[in-house]
Specification:
Layout lengths: L1 E6 L10 E4 L13 E6 L2 E11 L4 H5 L10 E2 L8 H13 L4 H7 L8 E8 L1 H7 L9 H13 L3 E2 H7 L4 H10 L2 E8 L6 E7 L3 H10 L5 H12 L4 E2 H8 L3 H9 L3 E7 L20 H16 L4 E6 L5 H14 L3 E5 L6 H12 L3 E4 L5 H12 L5 E4 L11 E7 L16 H12 L2 E6 L4 H8 L4 E5 L11 E5 H6 L8 H13 L2 E5 L8 E4 L16 E3 L4 E3 L6 E3 L12 E4 L3 H11 L5 E4 L9 H10 L5 E4 L12 E6 L13 H13 L10 E6 L5 H7 L3 H15 L6 E9 L2 H22 L16 E14 L2 E10 L5 H10 L2 H7 L2 E6 L6
Parallel strand pairs: 12-17, 12-18, 13-15, 13-16, 14-15, 16-17, 19-29, 20-27, 20-28, 26-27, 28-29
Antiparallel strand pairs: 1-2, 1-4, 3-4, 3-5, 6-7, 6-8, 9-10, 9-11, 21-25, 22-23, 23-24, 30-32, 30-33, 31-32
């Protein structure tokens, strides 16, 4: 039998299966989706089996009579990838122009990305010719090293040897070269199953007591253990037993030597929620709108026919309850469900709701879990011990075998698009899985992406609408505050008078407020008022952000940091000022204006530690804070009964970005954060501070009017020829030398145009000219909006196309033409299909 293996070496020439013979001992182990260790060149590497065949491929046969290499060993008892996921990886590789091994590896938790371990043992020369008599010719240190290896009677990890005999790298290499030592490579996972030493009683409780009485008086501690085990006959962890009885492990091991107890390593799961109790909940009665939406999803799940739904439900309309009842239908049918959320901050609240409803049937996958916790949660999914998965973007790859439903909450969020290879969008991956398995996909949002909205309007998605809040609660009134008028009136504070009064009245009434500021740090940039110098990153073309708590200025792109200046480094002036407004500065201003106010700040700086999101949100829920101040993570999905005021400090932050989606993102953010107010019995109020109150994204958000916004924004997109009226592929080139980068970028664009002409793509026009969008346009090259990051200059070109043109293949061929240039000059080319960020 032959295993066709994709080796985990993503370089040119390896993006195809390689044939390996399956040894007889592994014949029943190797399946499609298995991870295997295979010899590749001089080393052993991880590979993924994508096919099992009777005969080698024609390509291998034509290569000659050289004997096929064999699979070295199988890395897993059960294949970690299902055949469906292997097929999906192939689709991802073709769609997002990435190496197939990269797509396959993206589906696995980090703990399953194997690393090679070098081991050495006594070699044939030492046994046959050299003999141990040769040791007399060695130094004492060399003799000790070789004796240590000989006594081990096996292969020892090189890292372990170097710890015991530091500085012996060259000697080990020399001995391997002359045959004194033999070397092998073994692939091991980064994470192992967690096991703990557990105590098992070997006798009945009555016999335990009897044998305890027979022990001598000096064995007081052992008698204590036997008495405890007689009362508690279930297996107990050794550490727990020693802690409870205040004894040492040697006491228990003494009983094991007598045959009274048995010590055995037992696997234990690393459960991130083991210390949490979740109150069980029951399904709630549905409103008329919820009932209608649920019935549509239920019918699709029962029929097993793949359907794409867009659930457009206003904030507070009860989408989560519809999700949960739809999932229950799925479970009743013996199927499984995946729920994706866009933000880590949403996970605690969703976990509480879903664990409360479905209990131990729920697994959680997100980046703030430890590697061990993610590994164990993933293993529960693969083993079929859970039926529901909640997680961020990568949870879409949960290895379910009976997938019936995928729910993507807040589907409009850009975080569903991965920015590193493979640059997939979770929405498109979910749709591809749905088509392959018959699972239905529900995209839920109060502010759908315009791509999803257009698909629903055109009938490609089935549109479901929930236009009213549960129990008829009104959407909160939104007051748009013109900060220009505030400035004219003499108010130079970051808080307008209406927002100040609103916060003050909530403090007096004991109610809570949420304040949104879409940036972190203390100030946006540091500038000298004498000469105009702005503190910038020396490695990126971006200004440094000042963080007051550490008195440091940081680059949020490469991590560079330096101390705040006391004088201008350009002119020596002391007139250094901090411009812009960051979350730290807002927090300081709140404390100045409202002495004693309790502010809980949530941004990247305060939530970097594990469990920080849940801790801060729990404090706010328990009313240990008056104001929740944060960046985008406080804008969506959160539900607090006492929040009656939402304030947006600066609504214009994203409007000024060089991105065609800036208006859409502004509308979505304002609408989502407005929806945090008045979700329960207390009425809410929203204040939006802006310098552009007339912009249609701001006025539409002020009226909670998605349809008006969509109509105007789609009109702009149609005129400019942007999604959803076309598709985009962004090609970014980067290099340390600007001249080489410009030359290569121009060559890339010329190559794309030439290939398009060769393909005869209808309507191809090589130059951008502000006229109606053609079948395919190649725009650029131009400098990227941030022209330099980490000392590398960046240029980009954009491919805009309509219809089902073979554009991905065209781009792949164009990029491939520059493989040799990239190899020789270290130039990098990045391709982003359907990009969400153009920076």
């Amino acid at each position: 039998m032959i295993a066709k293996v994709i080796v985990d070496v993503p370089v040119k020439g390896t993006n195809r299966p390689f044939d390996y013979e399956i040894p007889a001992r592994y014949a029943s182990w190797v399946e499609v989706g298995s991870r295997v260790a295979v010899p590749f060149g001089p080393r052993v590497v991880q590979g993924f089996v994508v096919e099992v065949a009777e005969q080698p491929s024609a390509e291998t046969t034509e290569a000659g009579s050289r004997k096929l290499k064999a699979v070295d060993h199988v890395l897993d008892v059960e294949p970690p990838l299902t055949p469906e996921l292997v097929e999906l990886a192939g689709w991802m590789s073709r769609t997002y122009l990435c190496h197939l091994s990269v797509a396959l590896a993206a589906m696995l938790p980090a703990a399953l990305k194997a690393k090679a371990e070098r081991r050495v043992g006594i070699g044939p020369e030492a046994l046959r010719e050299v003999g141990l008599a040769a040791f007399g010719l060695m130094t004492q240190e060399e003799t000790e090293l070789l004796e240590h290896i000989r006594r081990s009677k096996g292969m020892l990890p090189v890292e372990q040897l170097l710890e015991r005999f530091p500085g012996s790298e060259a000697l080990i290499r020399q001995w391997v070269g002359c045959g004194l030592l033999a070397e092998e490579q073994v692939l091991k996972d980064k994470m192992a199953v967690k096991k703990v030493l557990t105590v098992f009683p070997c006798l009945s409780p009555e016999e335990m007591l009897l044998r305890g009485q027979e022990l001598p008086a000096s064995a007081k501690r052992q008698r204590q253990v036997l008495a405890y085990l007689a009362d508690n006959p279930d297996p107990v962890r050794l550490t727990e037993l020693t802690s409870r009885l205040d004894i040492t492990a040697s006491t228990v091991k003494g009983l094991a030597d007598k045959g009274l107890v048995r010590l055995e390593e037992v696997e234990v799961g690393r459960d991130p929620y083991a210390d949490r109790g979740f109150k069980r909940t029951s399904p709630l009665p549905l409103t008329v709108e919820q009932t209608r939406v649920y019935a549509s999803i239920r019918q699709a799940v029962l029929s097993g026919s793949h359907t794409m739904f867009l659930l457009h439900g206003v904030t507070g309309s009860g989408k989560t309850e519809v999700y949960m009842q739809s999932i229950q239908t799925c479970l009743d049918e013996g199927k499984e469900a995946i729920v994706l959320v866009p933000e880590i901050s949403l996970t605690p609240q969703m976990v509480e709701r879903f664990k409360g409803r479905f209990g131990a049937d729920v697994a959680v996958l997100h980046s703030r879990l430890s590697n061990g916790e993610r590994y164990d949660e993933w293993r529960k999914i693969a083993a079929g011990r859970v039926k529901v998965v909640i997680g961020a973007r990568s949870a879409v790859f949960a290895p379910f075998k009976k997938l019936g439903l995928v729910i993507i909450d807040e589907e409009h969020e850009s975080s569903y698009k991965q920015e590193e290879s493979p640059k997939y969008h979770a929405r498109e991956v979910a749709a591809a899985r749905g088509r392959a398995t018959g699972a239905s996909v529900v995209l839920g949002s109060a502010t759908p992406s315009l791509e999803s909205w257009q698909a629903a309007v055109q009938g490609r998605y089935k549109l479901l609408v929930m236009a009213e809040r549960v129990e008829g609660r009104p959407l909160p009134p939104v007051r748009i505050v013109d900060m220009r008028q505030e400035l004219y009136g003499g108010n130079r504070s970051m808080f307008s008078k209406p927002l100040y009064e609103g916060i003050k009245s909530r403090l007096e009434r004991g109610e809570q407020s949420v304040l949104l500021l879409n940036r972190r740090g203390y100030s946006t940039f540091v500038m000298c008022r004498s000469c105009g110098y702005t503190a910038g990153c020396p490695h990126c073309d971006i200004s440094l952000t000042y963080h007051q708590t550490s008195s440091m200025m940081r680059c949020h792109y490469c991590g560079y940091a330096e101390r705040q200046p006391t004088v201008c480094p350009e002119c020596g002036s002391e007139h250094i000022r901090y411009f812009g407004t960051g979350t730290q500065r807002v927090e300081e201003e709140l404390a100045r204006l409202f002495p004693g106010i309790r502010v809980i700040r949530m941004d990247v700086d305060t939530t970097s530690e594990k469990g920080a999101h849940e801790k801060l949100l729990t404090q706010f829920r328990q009313k240990k804070g008056d104001v929740l101040l944060g960046t985008q993570m406080v804008a969506k999905g959160l539900d607090f009964p006492d929040v009656t005021l939402v304030g947006v400090i600066t609504a214009d932050t994203m409007l000024n970005l060089p991105d065609f989606r800036s208006s859409e993102r502004t509308f979505q953010l304002l609408t989502q954060v407005a929806g945090r107010a008045g979700r329960h019995h207390l009425p809410g109020e929203v204040f939006v501070q802006t310098y552009t109150p007339e912009h249609y994204s701001v006025t539409a958000a002020g009226g909670h009017d998605f349809h008006r916004f969509a109509e105007q924004e789609l009109e702009h997109r149609a005129r400019g020829g942007y999604p959803p009226y076309c598709r985009l592929i962004l090609i970014t080139l980067s290099h340390t030398e600007l001249a080489l980068l410009v030359k290569t970028s121009e060559s890339m664009v010329n190559r794309l145009k030439a290939l398009a002409r060769e393909e005869g793509i209808p309507g191809f026009v090589g130059e951008a000219g502000g006229r109606e969008m053609q079948a395919l346009d190649v725009l650029g090259p131009v400098a990227s909006p941030i022209p330099r990051i980490k000392d590398r200059y960046r240029f980009q070109c954009m491919v805009k196309y309509r219809g089902d043109q073979p554009v991905s293949d065209l781009v792949a061929r164009a990029v491939e033409a520059f493989d040799e240039v990239c190899r020789q000059t270290k130039l990098t080319i990045s391709v982003d299909v359907d990009p969400q960020v153009l920076m």
